């Protein structure tokens, strides 16, 4: 452990979030780093042949795309759901129904058409699997719309179908040992899409649609250790929601990136609400119990989604990852998972946003704990609450009540007060005290 | 004794008169008739039985709430020979000042009309009406060209008027003494001092539990919060206005606030209320007013740019456009010193101006004119007016309910913040209260600020005029407005303004210019209202 030589390398995107720390970067010689907040492309090219000492940390898991690319996530979730049904029954498996019905295109096209015909008149959304910021997405209601699209991409599709091994008949346990097929998954030059059932009754505030961005920090998959950040935000669409205008991309897509190009967009507005505000709003409208239920349903989404890829992801002890979860709430206060981002945007759209993201990164570094200050038994570090530690983590102190009786409340505080500075002060003071006592 | 009794019976008579015209009366009558079918109602003891029935079925409670509501806005007893204007506002110089202020506003509005050659009012063509009806729920997407419009006035213009108010009968001599008021307001109104405020706001004391203080994360909920919530639910179950008003002095739990406010303001969504709102909506669709453009401009400039209220932009239009056409708002003029200045408008509006826009239909024309003269006096929005409505959008989502709540809040409280009167909750008294508190309890700060040309009122005026909306964080603002409702008074705004200055006194003592003082007080969004008030009132060494 060489704390003096810790170097931080941040891609330029992050430069405006943590300007202070970037200034301390020193020129590096090959491989001389202890901590790397890396780009996924770097990871893909270099991870496999980079030697890392025990203490070294890197900010992505090698095959994170199992969770973050929409088509793989769907597959993993479907598989996990089947397994749950076998082992624990339909009720347990139903807890995984937070993902709208999705079909991979083009290989599941026929399954999709079957589903489409069963539900005439509903709206579907077509999303490219690997693009972000809302690019390439469109809505449709008629098969004719995708027939045209399919024709337009026909040539490309055939190549992709031939090139990759038949993905749909892959090893049911989902293990992907062959390196080559992994590379192919990522390197496919052709675009793959998923067709997903569009949620037609989103919860509206002020007539506008919104989605929630929540941050989950995973320190390891085996065993699964995941932290949930208390802050986050709701991103509003700039225009009013109506199903009659499915061509208006700006209405339906709530990414700030897309909203920024809408003619209505005024940068000063920001069109974001901090989660605390959102939580208060819901509580004043529906009462605290309904809000508790909603937020614990969201906890369920985070945990199940991570569990579904637990066996698939290569759990390297050097890796950790900060995910950005996108959640949509419908009018029945049911949360839906839209997607998981491995590299959530860290550029700030407003002062408030800047504060949130700086504190988020700071607390991430505290949890990663390069300085080895933590004991490993902490349940809260700054704005992060330990949500899952190879098992549910309870808010109460003492050993978990495994009998299933009693009031188990998960140790999550999404949208609650985040008095992180105070907590960090107390934490580090007590840690210092403990160190002194033991030395 | 006799005088009191006759006063009381006068009050009762007036309230009965008022309530007789309300829908509650009709409902009670209906209920009474319907109750005749019940077995427990007997002919011999008809009166008592019906009364008993009303008690059990909750109708008596509704009547109680209505009476309580009327009492809250009832003017204080006065001499029987006093003329109506005197009842509205007893001080002649205040009446005059308000009259000339209104004249100025109207003049400004009229000149804007002429400059832009836009009529005060015009009937919309059918096509436009249809379009507006379709767009009713998303008027915020409209981007009309508002560049030529400017707000008729801003709070600081109004402040200048208040600064120049003088009581012609008051002579305080040329020599300065320790009694000289160093602030901007120079009228001798009676305001409370801290001991009186302590008594008035006794429930905010250190030994009483408060929401906003005793519900913070460090305090276990068993100590206060749980019990308080339980009591709140009970109050709601009983549907008792008076009890709700008493209860809310300690703050309202988030989940109960919407209902509690409705109970205190005695708003229940009856079909006739929804109908009334729809009628106003129809007026909006059919006629376009100059005032509308001013409303649009105000919403775009203030609420739409706010980090939190931008979401509610559409609701704001739906409420404010209807509000500007609501002639029943004039009912509150019985309690306001203002009165529709018939003479001014008739003189200004030549009939020929309107001949161009309307078909030559005399009776229709007169109706429109009378209506226009009413509404152009009704409420002319100033810069920031829409911020009165924005926080309410947090609580009420159904447009007609939101409308009713806003209207009631306006006629009970907000109108006092932008009209000249001697009422203890009027803006003049609030300014004077603020300055007096500061001068008496923070004399060094006051003197210092005055020396550097930063009269404190110049900074705090805008907070008070807007009832702190847009300056405080929403949850804090709602806690503050809880207390406004609870104490039926706006004095708390002046106390909070003084408390903010007290809180930032150290920084303020170091500034050397008005701009720097403004900068210290620019951001109030992190302030916690209740602790500030408590410390200022109950924990400061005086």
Automatic annotation (TrEMBL), chain A:
UniProt KW keywords: ATP-binding, Ligase, Nucleotide-binding
Record-level Gene Ontology MF annotations: ATP binding; ligase activity
Gene3D superfamilies the UniProt entry points to: ATP-grasp fold, A domain (3.30.1490.20), ATP-grasp fold, B domain (3.30.470.20)
Keyword Metal-binding assigned: no
Protein name: Tubulin--tyrosine ligase-like protein 9
Region described as Disordered: 160-186
Pfam families given in the database record: TTL (PF03133)
Similarity section: Belongs to the tubulin--tyrosine ligase family.
InterPro entries: ATP_grasp_subdomain_1, TTL/TTLL_fam
Keyword ATP-binding attached: yes
Organism, as annotated: Equus caballus (Horse)
Biased composition (Basic and acidic residues): 176-186
From TrEMBL, chain B:
InterPro entries: Rab-GAP-TBC_dom, Rab-GAP_TBC_sf, TBC1D19
Source taxon at top rank: Eukaryota
Domain Rab-GAP TBC, chain residue ranges per copy: 251-488
Protein's name in the database: TBC1 domain family member 19
Organism taxonomic ancestry: Eukaryota, Metazoa, Chordata, Craniata, Vertebrata
Gene: TBC1D19
């Amino acid at each position: 452990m060489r704390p003096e030589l810790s170097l931080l390398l941040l891609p330029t995107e992050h430069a405006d979030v943590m300007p202070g720390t970037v200034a301390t970067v020193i020129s590096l010689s090959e491989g001389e780093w202890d901590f790397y907040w890396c780009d996924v492309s770097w990871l893909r090219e270099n991870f496999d042949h980079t030697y890392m000492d025990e203490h070294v940390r890197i900010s992505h898991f090698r095959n994170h795309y199992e969770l973050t690319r929409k088509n793989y996530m769907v597959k993993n979730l479907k598989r996990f759901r089947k397994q749950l049904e076998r082992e624990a029954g339909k009720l347990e498996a139903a807890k995984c129904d937070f993902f709208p019905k999705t079909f991979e295109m083009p290989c599941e096209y026929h399954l999709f058409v079957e589903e489409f015909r069963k539900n005439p008149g509903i709206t579907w959304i077509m999303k490219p699997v690997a693009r972000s910021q809302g690019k390439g997405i469109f809505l449709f209601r008629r098969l004719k719309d995708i027939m045209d699209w399919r024709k337009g991409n026909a040539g490309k599709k055939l190549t992709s179908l031939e090139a990759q091994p038949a993905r749909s008949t892959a090893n049911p346990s989902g293990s992907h040992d062959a390196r080559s097929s992994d590379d192919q998954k990522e390197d496919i030059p052709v675009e793959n899409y998923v067709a997903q059932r569009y949620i037609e009754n989103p919860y509206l505030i002020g007539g506008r649609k919104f989605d929630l961005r929540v941050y989950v920090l995973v320190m390891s998959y085996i065993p699964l250790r995941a932290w949930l950040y208390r802050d986050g935000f709701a991103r509003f669409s700039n225009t009013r929601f109506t199903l009659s205008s499915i061509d208006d991309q700006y209405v339906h897509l709530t990414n700030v990136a897309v909203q920024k190009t809408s003619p209505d967009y005024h940068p000063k507005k920001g069109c974001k609400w901090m989660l605390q505000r959102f939580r208060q709003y819901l509580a004043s409208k529906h009462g605290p119990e309904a809000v508790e239920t909603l937020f614990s349903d969201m906890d369920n989404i985070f945990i199940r989604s991570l569990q579904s890829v637990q066996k698939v992801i290569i759990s390297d002890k050097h890796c950790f990852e900060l995910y950005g979860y996108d959640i949509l709430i419908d009018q029945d206060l049911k949360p839906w998972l839209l997607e998981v981002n491995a590299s959530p945007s860290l550029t700030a759209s407003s002062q408030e946003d800047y504060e949130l993201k700086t504190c988020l990164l700071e607390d991430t570094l505290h949890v990663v704990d390069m300085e080895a200050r933590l004991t490993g038994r902490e349940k809260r570090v700054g704005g992060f609450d330990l949500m899952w530690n190879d098992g549910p983590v309870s808010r109460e102190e003492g050993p978990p009540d495994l009998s299933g009786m009693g009031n188990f409340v998960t140790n999550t505080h999404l949208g609650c007060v985040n008095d992180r500075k105070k907590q960090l002060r107390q934490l580090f003071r007590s840690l210092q005290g403990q160190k002194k006592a033991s030395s | 004794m006799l005088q009191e009794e006759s006063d009381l019976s006068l009050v009762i008579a007036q309230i009965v008169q008022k309530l007789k015209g309300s829908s509650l009366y009709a409902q009670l009558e209906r209920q009474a008739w319907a109750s005749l079918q019940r077995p427990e109602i007997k002919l011999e003891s008809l009166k008592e039985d019906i009364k008993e029935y009303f008690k059990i079925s909750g109708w008596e409670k509704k009547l109680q709430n209505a009476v309580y509501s009327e009492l809250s806005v009832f003017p204080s007893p006065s001499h029987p020979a006093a003329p109506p204007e005197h009842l509205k506002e007893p001080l002649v110089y205040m009446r005059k000042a308000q009259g000339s202020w209104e004249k100025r506003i109207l003049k400004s509005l009229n000149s804007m009309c002429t400059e832009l050659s836009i009529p005060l009012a015009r009937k919309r063509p059918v096509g436009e009406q249809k379009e507006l009806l379709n767009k009713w729920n998303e008027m915020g997407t409209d981007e009309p060209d508002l560049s030529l419009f400017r707000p008729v006035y801003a709070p600081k213009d109004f402040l200048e008027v208040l600064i120049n108010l003088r009581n012609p009968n008051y002579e305080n001599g040329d020599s300065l003494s320790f009694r000289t008021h160093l602030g901007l307001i120079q009228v001798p109104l009676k305001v409370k001092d801290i001991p009186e405020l302590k008594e008035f706001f006794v429930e905010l004391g250190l030994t009483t539990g408060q929401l906003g203080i005793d519900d913070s994360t460090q305090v276990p909920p068993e100590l206060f919060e749980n019990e308080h919530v339980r009591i709140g639910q009970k109050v709601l179950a009983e549907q008792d206005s008076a009890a709700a008003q008493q209860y809310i002095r300690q703050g309202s739990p988030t989940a109960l606030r919407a209902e509690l406010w409705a109970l205190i303001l005695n708003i229940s969504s009856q079909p006739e209320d929804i109908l009334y709102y729809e009628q106003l909506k129809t007026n909006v669709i059919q006629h376009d007013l100059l005032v509308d453009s001013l409303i649009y401009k105000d919403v775009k400039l203030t609420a739409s740019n706010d980090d939190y209220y931008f979401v509610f932009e559409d609701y704001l239009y739906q409420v404010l456009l209807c509000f500007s056409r609501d002639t029943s708002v004039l009912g509150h003029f019985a309690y306001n010193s203002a009165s529709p200045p018939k003479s001014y408008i008739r003189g200004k509006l030549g009939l020929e101006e309107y001949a161009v826009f309307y078909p030559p239909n005399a009776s229709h024309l007169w109706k429109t004119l009378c209506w226009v003269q009413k509404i152009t006096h009704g409420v002319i929005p100033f810069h920031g007016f829409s911020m009165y409505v924005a926080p309410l959008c947090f609580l009420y989502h159904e447009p007609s309910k939101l409308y009713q709540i806003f209207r009631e809040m306006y006629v009970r409280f907000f109108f006092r913040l932008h009209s000249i009167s001697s009422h203890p909750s009027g803006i003049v008294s609030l300014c004077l209260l603020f300055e007096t508190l500061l001068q008496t309890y923070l004399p060094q700060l006051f003197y210092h600020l005055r020396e550097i040309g930063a009269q404190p009122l110049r900074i705090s005026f805008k907070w008070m005029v807007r009832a702190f909306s847009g300056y405080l964080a929403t949850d804090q603002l709602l806690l503050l407005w809880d207390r406004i409702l609870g104490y039926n008074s706006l004095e708390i705004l002046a106390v909070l303004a003084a408390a903010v200055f007290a809180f930032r006194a150290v920084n303020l003592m170091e500034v050397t210019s008005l701009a720097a003082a403004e900068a210290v007080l620019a951001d109030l969004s992190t302030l916690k209202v209740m602790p500030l008030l408590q410390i200022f009132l109950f924990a400061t060494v005086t």
